[in-house]
Each structure stands twice: as structure tokens, then as C-alpha cells.
Design brief:
The complex is a heterodimer of chains A (about 550) and B (about 325). Chain A has about 550 residues and is of the alpha+beta class. Chain A is built from 15 helices and 23 strands. In chain A, strands 10-11-12-3-13-21-14 form a seven-stranded mixed beta sheet. In chain A, helix 11 links the parallel strand 17 and strand 18. The two termini of chain A are about 35 Å apart. Chain B is mostly helical and about 325 residues long. Chain B is about 80% helix and about 0% strand. Chain B is flat. The chains are: A alpha+beta (about 550), B mainly alpha (about 325). Chains A and B meet through helix 5 and helix 12 of A and helix 2, helix 5, helix 7, helix 10 and helix 11 of B.
């Protein structure tokens, strides 16, 4: 559960999920940022598995060096290959077995996990039910864990119990429609109990150890330089083809582009969209575009001020041209979206059709300056007061986003000021202390959901703070929405969960608690000698390099 | 005489220590005064509970008065404990040590380029006639106007992308490969300083060429080469040396730009990252290290000047 999520229309079709997002042919001569009409984008969720072993693959992390490799302590592309989960997110956002050969509801409030026999940690010690209980309890008892929210409906007394040599049973106070999906991500990752307890706070840091059961073992971590992982030859699902997977930290987009085009690193996710034409012209590797839940949006930062007024948000939304936004900021690698949670989030659900029907019924974003001006006039807000939008320093995409919001606002008589904040100061905006938000009206961000599920993201913005609405800074409180979202969470089956959610969405979507600007695709650049990587947003939570190898 | 030298040396060391002390206070308070809360960095991206915030503040003395925090920090630095990174949770020394080598190599490589091409072209401009002087003047005029990052982009384009002669990312493995990888970064850093050094050298050499003792030597029939080495260049060298101390220290600071552009995991890129992530202990130690290098290298340059030209240290007394 990261702080946001969105996506795009997705049609699940096995491992290699392909879909077309229509646009017009692109002009190969123009720079990608001027490329108003990017060509049809073929979305690929996973490349065909590798067939040959490779000695070493070098991967770049544009997000920079991880803070920690412990699931839930940080999000990065290293951890999902190291710590395997009880269930596994498929590239098409379906959920398959993992360390658990079976993990499902025995009755509406009892969840039973059967561990696959013969699964071992990297050092050869078997994965036991004690390790599984320890790993689950870490999140259930630690309010700072990113996965704490997934466990809130677990019974306090004897909620997680060993019920067999290879069986763990979890008892709930109410049915939980989101729990199974959550176990497919870091919330279901299994860590070795003995090593984790002995390591204490050093666990998973550059100075500490980590013992998990994933397809790659942590070999070394040289802070500031690289993280080296090597193939786990005894992995339960077969040994990886890449014998050594080395991660380098290249947070500068231009440097990353050069390193990829020169072949000095073999691949990277989230490559700069502004380099799209260089990637597409490359003879070293290829750009693969995959489905994602990621999106760019902005939302209110406090209860007072014009940002908290839904009419102002609606007016701004009507003034921003989404097609232009996508070609300018994302180099055409995205698509307009109608609300917070976008179709790829539910593409693997058995109730996907219900969610899709609800989504299709929403009004698609459109430009209407006259209506926008009317809303501003009617809002009763003092338009002479500038609106402040916070963005993180160093993000080219969000800096362009802020400039677009600014010029759209100008057209409808509003003034927008941009407040660029350093990484740590920007991160502080998302903490409980309201001080860093006091002089802000909006916060512009990008985000994604790394596991399937619809509820996790909107809950953060729509529920009252004490029920989990930790980013509900504008004080949004609609009892009907709260009731429907809770009904969806505690629904005993996927269909009734979808029904309640769609009903809630109909009410909250027009209030634009996040003004969604675009769903962005998951981008991967991979050397031509390689294949087999997961290329959808599922790479955040699944062992994406398991089938990576030569072709 | 020895007493004078000793006194001067002591005075210099005293001044050096005072400078270091004052800058350590400045660095510590400046870093602490920057907006934002270090607790965010310490919490490692998690949403800390109030208890967690209190525990973090106690552990890192953030609830103590600033002067206590300073004393604790400087006490640690003096006893060899540089502290622990807020972000990586590893000792700062472990972060800095592996990066220091590559940055030193980059600075040394750059310095060689500056000396060879800067001093060399300065001498050529001063001694090889008008045409040479003009050409060097034009080249250095362009050079001083080229910021490091612009040069870096040009070099990446020309030598990396079009010609493909040099790698444009990373620092390589092994000394030779290191040097190969550091070529473009070193050039991008050197261009500005080469131009600057060339100008200074030309001025100093021209000044000496017209000095009386050079004319005298020429009249006495001493060979040109010998005159240039003994009388012109040696006498001009203090002026060149005087800027070297500052140049080297400046290179350590400027290396951040080249390291960022070429993806080199050195000290400069660590400093910029640490500053953005509010990793105060790392920022403080690297800043102090830069000040230390600056002060020490300037002192070394001064001593070298005094050795070449003992008169330069006297005027204060004789004036």
C-alpha cells in the first residue's frame, strides 16, 4: 500500500498481456516532448522467458539507492527478487501461489495458509510455520509498517496461529476482501525469524544481513556504489538464468539514458519518458511499455483555503488538457483516467467486469474553460490569493506538471505558485504533523499500487483519519462513502465488494480528492541480448528477474 | 632565523586550527538550520508514531540544546567517530572511504590536465609570438565561459555518443579502467580551470620576461632555455602555485557536477544526495572534509611558495 495508485485499461491475456491504447501515428523526427500524437503503444506485461544462462546482468535504479531491503520499510526493485511472498502477483495482476501452495478463505472470517513443502531460505534452512507467523506478525504489530493497514481486521487475540506442521490460520473480526491480494506483495513476504531477530534494526540495511527465500540472494551491498545479488540455485520455482544481478544507483535521468544507450547497464525500470525517441532509435536495447497502476495527480493539502473547495478542483480539472499533458510530460506513454483508481488495479479480479462498468459510467476528463470560469466565480473563493502547489525537487515530470497546472489556472483567473521541496522535506508532507502542509493548497505527486486491489488507495484520501484516511487532509467526510467503502472491505465475496465500491465511487469521484492528470505506463529499457523481465507494475512486488536471461 | 620560522609555523598552525574550529561551528549550525525535520530522514520513509519520534530524538540527541549536540559531534569527529548516517544507518566513514579514492583520482587526473594544458598553453602564449598568444586568448575566453555541466553534455555527445571513444557512465574496475572512465569527467572539470590557469601563467611569465634580472641574464649570454627555467618560470611559479591550493579544493567541490553527469559514485555525488535526503551527519562530515582540504592545501601552497621565494614571507616584518 503505497500512497497512491491508478492505471489504465487492461485486458488480461495470460502472461504476455497486450493491449492497445489508441493514439495517432507519431512523427519520428520530432523530439518526444513535442510529440503531441504518440503512436499506438503496445502494452506488454512480461517478455518471453529467457532461454540461456547469463553470467551477469547490471540493472539501474533510477529511484536511487534503497534505504532498506526489508519489505514494508522501503519500495525498490531489489527487494521483490530477494524476499519471496506467500502468494505471487502475476505480470497481468492476477494472483498465483508462492511460498504458500494454497492460501485462501476457509470461511468468511478464517484464512488458511498451507506452506509449500521443501521451500528453503538461501542458506538451506527450511521455511517453517514459525517463520511465516513471525513475518506476518511484524506487520500486524508495527504501526509504522507500510502493510499495517492490511492486517487491521485480524482478530487481536490468537489472530495468527499455527494449526499444523505446514499450516497457519488467520482469524478475522470481519470478512476482508483485500487481504488475499495484499499477501501477494510485501505484506506476505517471508523472512527468517532467527536472523531477523538477531539483526534488530540493522536488518536489511547496508550494514546488516537479511535471510529470505527468493530467487536471488543478497551477496553484498556497498553503500553508494552497488548491491550485488546472486542466483539462488535451490529456489523452489527453479534457479534464475541470470547468475549475478548487480544494481547500480543512477538517479539522474540523462545519466541513466546515456548508460543504457551505451550498454553500460543492461536495463532499468521507470526510464525517463523524455528520452523516448532516443530509446526507440537505440541499437543497444529496446523500450518496453507495460500496463501500470501508476498515475500523476494533485490533491488538497489542508482543510481551509481554495484547494479544499471541490469547485476549485473541478475548475482546474476542466482547464487542463489531458492529451496535451500526456504528450508533454509522459512523452505519450500514458492515458487519460477518470478517477483515482484505474482499471489495471482490478484487471485480475473475478469482479473485473463490475468494476469496469462502474468506471466506464464516470465522466471522462474534458476541457471546458467557460464551465471552469463559472465554477470559479460560483465557488466564493478569493481568487486574488495565489494557490501553492508543492512538488519534489529534481522531478522533471512533476516540475512540468506544476507548470501545466499553473498555466491552466491562469486561463481561468487563478494564480498558482510552485513550492519545490527537497526530497526529505517533500516526504515530510505525508507525515501526520500538519506543519509542512500549512501554507500549501495542493500537493502534486505520482504513485502506484504494487498489488492488485481497488480499496487500498482511495481509502487513504476518503475515510476519516482514525479509520485509515491518513492523507485525507481536506477533511472530506461523507458518511455514505465511508459506509460503502467499509462494506466493500468487509464484503464476503468479490462481487459484493465491487458493488459497494462502485456505489461509493459514483459519489466520491466528482469531488476530485485527487485531480488525476494521467495514468502512466510502466516503462522498461532492456538490452537486446536479454529477455524475460516482468514489464508491468507487478515488478514492484514480484520476483521480476526470475525468468530474466539470454534469448 | 629558526626561531622566526618556528614562530611563523606555529602561527600558521594556530590560524589553521582556528579556521577549522570556526568552520566546524558554522557547518554544524548551518546544516541544522536548514528547513525540514531530520526525523523524516531517520524514520526511513515510514510514518513514525509519536513514540518513535521521541525515541529517535533521544537517540540522536535532537532534543538537546544545539551546543550539546555540537560538542557531542565534534568530540566524536576528533576521536575518529564520524557518526552514523541517518539514511543508510551505517557509519559515515564507511560511506565516505570507498568514495574518497575515486574522487581523489578524479581530482588528481583533472589537476594533471590543468597543469599540462593550463600552464603549458600559458607559457606558449607568453613566449611563442602574437599568433600563438591570440589563439590561446580566444581558446581560453571560450574556456572560462563554459560551465562544467555544459562541457559534460558536449563531451558525452561528441566522445560518447557520436565517436564512442570513451565510456560516459561509471568509474570502471581497476586503475587503468578507472582512468579511462574518468577521462571525460576530468576534461569537463578541467576546461574552466585550464583557461584560468593559462591566463594566470601567461601574465606571470610575461611579467618576468620583462624583469631586469632576466635582461641582465640575457646580456650575460646565458642560454635561453636556462634563463627561462631558472629566472622566468621559477619566479613566475609562486603566482601559479598561489591559485593551485584553491583550485584543488575547488575541484573537490566542483567534482559533484561531473560525478552526477557521468554517474560516478564519488564524494561530490554523495554530498548532493545526502543534502537532498537530509542526511545531516554525512553532509556535515563531507563539508568539514572539504574545508579541511581547502585550508590544508592552501597552507601547503603557501609553504611551497615560501621555499621557492623566501622573500614573499618577509614583507610584513620589513615593511
Amino acid at each position: 500500500m503505497t500512497f497512491r495508485g491508478k492505471a489504465l485499461a487492461a485486458i488480461a491475456a495470460g502472461t504476455a498481456l497486450v493491449l492497445l491504447a489508441g493514439c495517432t501515428p507519431r512523427d519520428g523526427e520530432t523530439a518526444p516532448t513535442d510529440d503531441a500524437d504518440a503512436g499506438p503503444v503496445e502494452l506488454v506485461a512480461a517478455l518471453p522467458a529467457g532461454t540461456a544462462e547469463v553470467d551477469e546482468v547490471t540493472w539501474a535504479l533510477v529511484e536511487g539507492e534503497p534505504r532498506s531491503l526489508v519489505p514494508g520499510a522501503d519500495y525498490n526493485f531489489v527487494q521483490p527478487n530477494l524476499c519471496d511472498s506467500l502468494l505471487r502477483v502475476q505480470p497481468d495482476f492476477g494472483v498465483a501461489p508462492g511460498i504458500a501452495e494454497r492460501a485462501d478463505w476457509a470461511d468468511p472470517v478464517t484464512f488458511v495458509i498451507d506452506i509449500r513443502p521443501g521451500v528453503t531460505f538461501w542458506d538451506g534452512t527450511p521455511v517453517t510455520v514459525e517463520d511465516v507467523v513471525y513475518s506476518l506478525e511484524r506487520h500486524r504489530t508495527d504501526v509504522t509498517s507500510a502493510f499495517y493497514g492490511a492486517f487491521v481486521l485480524v482478530a487481536a487475540e490468537d489472530g495468527i496461529e499455527i494449526t499444523g506442521e505446514r499450516q497457519v490460520t488467520i482469524r478475522f473480526v470481519a470478512p476482508d476482501s483485500t487481504f488475499r491480494d495484499a499477501l501477494s506483495g510485501g505484506a506476505g513476504a517471508v523472512l527468517n525469524k532467527a536472523v531477523s531477530e538477531a539483526q534488530g534494526p540493522a536488518l536489511g540495511t547496508s550494514g546488516g544481513e537479511l535471510l529470505c527465500a527468493g530467487p536471488f540472494k543478497l551477496a553484498s551491498w556497498t553503500p553508494g556504489r552497488e548491491i550485488v545479488t546472486v542466483a539462488n540455485e535451490s529456489y523452489w520455482d527453479g534457479a534464475p538464468l541470470a547468475k549475478k544481478l548487480t544494481f547500480r544507483f543512477i538517479s539522474d535521468g540523462t545519466t541513466l539514458t546515456n548508460a543504457l544507450l551505451e550498454g553500460e547497464v543492461d536495463g532499468a525500470f521507470n526510464v525517463p519518458p523524455s528520452s523516448r525517441s532516443s530509446f526507440e532509435a537505440s541499437e543497444t536495447g529496446r523500450l518496453v511499455v507495460g500496463p501500470s497502476t501508476a498515475s500523476f495527480s494533485f490533491g488538497p493539502a489542508r482543510e481551509s483555503g481554495a484547494g479544499a473547495n471541490p469547485m476549485i478542483r473541478q475548475a482546474l480539472s476542466l482547464a487542463i488538457d489531458r492529451e496535451q499533458y500526456i504528450s508533454t510530460v509522459l512523452g505519450g506513454l500514458g492515458q487519460p483516467i477518470s478517477t483515482f483508481v484505474t482499471p489495471f488495479s482490478w484487471s485480475g479480479s473475478s469482479a473485473a467486469e463490475d468494476y469496469q462498468a462502474g468506471y466506464d459510467a464516470l465522466a471522462a476528463p474534458e476541457v471546458d474553460l467557460d464551465e471552469a470560469k463559472r465554477l470559479v466565480a460560483e465557488s466564493g473563493e478569493d481568487v486574488s490569493v495565489p494557490l501553492r502547489v508543492a512538488i519534489p525537487a529534481g522531478s522533471k515530470e512533476l516540475s512540468q506538471t506544476a507548470a501545466i497546472i499553473q498555466s491552466a489556472a491562469r486561463q481561468i483567473g487563478l494564480t498558482v505558485e510552485i513550492d519545490e521541496r527537497q526530497a526529505a522535506d517533500f516526504a515530510a508532507i505525508f507525515l501526520p504533523d500538519p506543519a509542512p502542509r500549512e501554507n500549501l493548497d495542493f500537493v502534486a505527486t505520482s504513485g502506484y499500487m504494487e498489488t492488485p486491489g481497488v480499496l487500498a488507495y482511495p481509502q487513504l484520501f476518503l475515510l476519516p483519519p482514525d479509520l485509515g484516511g491518513i492523507f485525507n487532509w481536506s477533511g472530506y467526510a461523507d458518511p455514505e462513502v465511508t459506509g460503502l467503502l467499509e462494506a466493500s472491505r468487509t464484503a464476503p465475496d468479490a462481487e459484493s465488494a465491487a458493488e459497494a465500491y462502485v456505489a461509493a465511487q459514483e459519489i466520491f469521484a466528482p469531488d476530485l480528492l485527487q485531480v488525476s492528470l494521467a495514468g502512466s505506463y510502466h516503462t522498461t529499457f532492456l538490452n537486446d541480448a536479454l529477455t524475460g523481465a516482468t514489464t508491468s507494475v507487478a515488478a514492484y512486488a514480484s520476483p521480476w528477474a526470475l525468468h530474466l536471461g539470454g534469448r | 632565523m629558526t626561531a622566526t620560522v618556528a614562530r611563523q609555523l606555529l602561527g600558521r598552525i594556530g590560524g589553521l586550527l582556528l579556521t577549522l574550529f570556526l568552520s566546524s561551528v558554522l557547518i554544524f549550525s548551518a546544516v541544522l538550520l536548514t528547513p525540514g525535520d531530520p526525523v523524516v530522514a531517520l524514520a526511513g520513509g515510514l510514518r513514525p508514531t509519536p513514540e518513535m519520534i521521541a525515541a529517535i530524538k533521544e537517540q540522536y540527541l535532537l532534543d538537546q540544546p544545539v551546543w550539546i549536540q555540537y560538542l557531542h559531534w565534534i568530540g566524536g569527529v576528533l576521536s575518529g567517530d564520524l557518526g552514523t548516517s541517518f539514511v543508510y544507518r551505517t557509519p559515515v566513514v564507511e560511506l565516505i572511504a570507498p568514495r574518497f579514492g575515486i574522487t581523489v583520482l578524479l581530482v588528481a587526473y583533472t589537476l594533471v590536465l590543468i597543469l599540462v594544458f593550463g600552464v603549458g598553453s600559458g607559457i606558449v602564449a607568453a613566449t611563442r609570438g602574437r599568433a600563438a598568444d591570440r589563439s590561446v586568448l580566444i581558446a581560453t575566453s571560450i574556456g572560462v565561459a563554459m560551465p562544467t555541466f555544459v562541457v559534460a553534455i558536449l563531451l558525452i555527445w561528441v566522445f560518447g555518443r557520436v565517436l564512442g571513444w570513451f565510456p560516459v557512465y561509471g568509474s570502471g574496475e581497476g586503475l587503468l579502467d578507472n582512468l579511462f572512465h574518468l577521462t571525460l569527467p576530468a576534461i569537463s572539470l578541467a576546461v574552466l580551470y585550464i583557461a584560468y590557469t593559462s591566463r594566470i601563467t601567461r601574465g606571470a611569465v610575461v611579467g618576468q620576461l620583462h624583469a631586469e634580472h632576466v635582461d641582465t641574464a640575457r646580456v650575460r649570454g646565458i642560454p635561453r632555455g636556462q634563463i627561462f627555467r631558472r629566472h622566468v618560470f621559477l619566479n613566475a611559479s609562486p603566482q601559479i602555485l598561489a591559485i593551485s591550493g584553491a583550485t584543488i579544493a575547488g575541484l573537490f567541490a566542483a567534482s559533484a557536477i561531473a560525478e552526477q553527469a557521468f554517474g560516478i559514485g564519488g564524494l561530490g555525488s554523495l554530498l548532493t544526495e545526502a543534502a537532498a535526503r537530509k542526511d545531516l551527519p554525512v553532509v556535515q562530515v563531507i563539508s568539514l572534509l572539504l574545508v579541511f582540504l581547502f585550508v590544508v592545501l592552501n597552507a601547503v601552497a603557501d609553504v611551497a611558495i615560501a621555499l621557492i621565494d623566501p622573500d614573499s614571507v618577509k614583507p610584513r616584518r620589513t615593511a
